[in-house]
Design a protein that fits this description.
Number of helices: 1
Oligomer: single chain
Number of domains: 2
Order of helices and strands: HEEEEEEEEE
CATH superfamily of the largest domain: Jelly Rolls
Number of strands: 9
Shape: globular
Distance between the termini: 65 Å
Structural class: alpha+beta
Amino acid sequence: MTNNILIIFIATFLMFFTFINSSAEDEKHLMEYYKNGQATELPSMNITGINAYLKDMIFTNDPDSPVVCGLFRMEKGAPLEYTYTYDDVKIILEGEMTVSEEGGETVEAKPGDIFLYREGAKVTFSSNSSGLGFYCGQRAADEF
């Protein structure tokens, strides 16, 4: 009988220790890593005749101040007209894009160029070849 109690005690201790350790491990890992993230395949934005691709990759779950980050690719073809309903920042990672603000300037964007789009900005994106940008906006995931 004593051996059975000892075995039950040891098994319970090991299960408890494993649970505590796994909970502690979960709290330690607050970083997410996306190796070679800019090579991620991007789904089409499904806008007829426009070769634009976008994927929300990283986002917070804060309902009061959501943040979403991801990749946007614009391929040669018809331009994409977009009105921002949120603030957004975009950095061009590779290729080239032409970015025009309605009533504002037109920029031939190259890798390293950074844009801030304020809520209400009406922007047209186009490319003579292809361009890839990383964005970070104040919106919930999949609300573009």
